[in-house]
């Protein structure tokens, strides 16, 4: 009764653990194997089968667990194509009869299918990724990030290839009520959605103003995502403009308030963005909400289209079934937040890839401070 339960097993486990390789040793072994394969141009499937320099050595063959370890090493090293090959080898060697041993080391067919799906999505091989997501071993759940990522990519792909019709129950009218100034200079406004509120203004910026903006000697840099890093999610260049530096920019700022009816207390900055051939921005939300604690949130977004695009480049809102093609001089405005301050999920949107031409937009986020 006084003897600790499991003490003998714990002592045995501790003794055996001293014989196991450390994480650093496993990493070094994986690096050495990759160096061997690279320097001697060895095919990975031959290496995994124990075929070295024309000699077959069955004892040197890799197990499914070995291949999986090599795949995880290559993923950490960002060698995704090699990781994909190792994962396929691991799946080919995987034996369900070894489920006890595999489980001990965290090896499961569902994990291999998941990692393969992630790597295929990175290469935009969405259909192939879905086959692994739909594998019986995968064990999908409602919150599965891989499945959500796949569905997001497919939604982006499908909507960019479809011309979604605008709702017919909304209207076009002259906006004379948002600010007093509009009583004498109304804006041409087309309603796109009431939930969230979204409109497009026609002839919102003049050709002269566009020429002044684009004629400046601006130093465009690769556009970053919200956490200030370059990402495959976005392909564009942008430059920040302080619109207090010229009369034309101040006029645009005043018009912005006329369109939105919201006093902008945020930074007096505009972002001029250029999407070249293939330029795009995957599905995203402009508002932060709880993800950026302490930062002002983006109440609304305004996009001025500074030119037409020959093919591609549309702004899509899949949840609203809206496709807005860039039309020179028009401006798209929408609310990002609900009345209770939470993000409006229907504002999920994307910039489709430019196929022919070049796309210039001037954007402004109206922030609460």
Protein described:
With 369 residues, the protein is of the alpha+beta class. It has 11 helices and 18 strands. The mean pLDDT is 79.
Topology, element by element:
Layout lengths: L6 H11 L5 H17 L4 H5 L2 E2 L2 E2 L7 H13 L3 H14 L5 H6 L4 H14 L3 H8 L11 H16 L11 E4 L11 E8 L2 E6 L4 H9 L5 E2 L11 E2 L1 E6 L4 H14 L8 E7 L4 E5 L13 E8 L5 E2 L2 E3 L4 E3 L6 E5 L13 E3 L2 E3 L2 E9 L2
Antiparallel strand pairs: 1-2, 3-4, 4-5, 5-15, 6-8, 7-10, 8-9, 9-18, 10-16, 11-15, 11-18, 12-17, 13-14, 13-16
Helix pairs in contact: 4-5, 5-7, 7-8, 7-9, 8-9
Let me know the number of strands: 18
Most strands sheet = 9 strands, antiparallel
The stretches of 5 or more residues where confidence is low (pLDDT under 50) are: none
Summarize model confidence as the mean pLDDT: 79
Which series of helices and strands comes N to C?
A: HHHEEHHHHHHEEEHEEEHEEEEEEEEEE
Helix amount:
25-40%
Distance between the termini: 66 Å
Radius of gyration: 28 Å
Strand content of the residues, in percent? Answer: 15-25%
Assembly form of the protein: single chain
What class, by secondary structure content? alpha+beta
Strand order of the largest sheet: 3-4-5-15-11-18-9-8-6
User: Based on CA inertia axes, which overall geometry fits?
Assistant: elongated
Number of helical elements: 11
């Amino acid at each position: 009764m006084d003897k600790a339960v499991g003490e003998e097993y714990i002592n045995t486990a501790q003794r055996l653990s001293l014989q196991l390789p450390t994480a650093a040793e496993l990493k070094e072994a994986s690096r050495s194997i990759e160096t061997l394969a690279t320097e001697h141009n060895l095919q990975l499937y031959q290496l995994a089968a124990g075929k070295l320099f024309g000699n077959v050595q069955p004892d040197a063959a890799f197990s499914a667990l070995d291949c999986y370890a090599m795949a995880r090493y290559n993923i950490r090293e960002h060698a995704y194509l090699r990781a994909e090959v190792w994962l396929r080898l691991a799946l080919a060697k995987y034996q369900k009869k070894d489920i006890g041993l595999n489980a001990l080391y965290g090896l499961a067919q569902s994990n291999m299918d998941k990692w393969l799906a992630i790597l295929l999505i990175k290469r935009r091989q969405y259909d192939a990724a879905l086959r692994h997501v739909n594998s019986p071993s995968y064990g999908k759940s409602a919150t599965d990030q891989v499945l959500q990522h796949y569905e997001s990519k497919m939604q982006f792909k499908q909507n960019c290839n479809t011309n979604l019709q605008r709702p017919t129950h909304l209207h076009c009218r002259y906006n004379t009520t948002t600010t007093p100034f509009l009583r004498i200079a109304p804006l041409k406004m087309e309603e796109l959605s009431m939930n969230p509120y979204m409109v497009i203004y026609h002839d919102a910026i003049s050709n002269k103003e566009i020429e002044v903006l684009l004629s400046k000697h601006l130093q465009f840099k690769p556009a970053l995502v919200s956490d200030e890093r370059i990402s495959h999610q976005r392909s564009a260049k942008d430059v920040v403009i302080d619109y207090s530096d010229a009369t034309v920019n101040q006029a645009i700022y005043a018009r912005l308030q006329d369109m939105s009816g919201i006093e902008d207390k945020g930074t007096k900055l505009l972002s001029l963005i250029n999407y070249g051939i293939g330029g795009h921005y995957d599905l995203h939300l402009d508002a932060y909400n709880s993800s950026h604690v302490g930062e002002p949130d983006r109440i609304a977004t305004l996009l001025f289209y500074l030119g037409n695009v020959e093919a591609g480049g549309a702004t899509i809102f899949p949840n609203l079934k809206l496709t807005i093609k860039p039309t020179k001089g028009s401006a798209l405005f929408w609310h990002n937040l609900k009345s209770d301050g939470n993000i409006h999920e229907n504002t999920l949107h994307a910039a489709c890839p430019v196929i022919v031409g070049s796309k210039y937009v001037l954007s402004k986020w109206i922030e609460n401070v």
